[in-house]
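Our platform keeps sequence and structure together, in a single record for each protein. This encoding replaces a full spatial description with a residue-level series of whole-number codes. We quote a single record here, exactly as it is kept in our systems:
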Amino acid sequence: MSRKETMAVYAIIRTGGKQYRVQKGDVVRVERLEEAVGATVILDEVLFLGGEGEPRVGNPRLAGASVVATVVEQDRDAKIRVFKYKKRKHYRRTRGHRQSFTAVRIDAVQA
């Protein structure tokens, strides 16, 4: 990317105990949020803003910064198998797990 091209504003947000790098137009799968499909969500735990101008780093969060997103989908991920095994002891345990997620589309990154 050349210096003349402007880079889009992006943010690093924290939700559900995880951090995500997002910018306008991204669709991100986050931990389950209690919102209906089509609802607007404001994610205000912004840790970093970058892109145009000087990067801004929060301590730990940036005051006044937020990310506006729209809920696209509420679903559950594919099932995983959890298998425990001890050789020569006839010990076997199988369990399954399906993690819930919310897919959100990033509408705006507000500084």
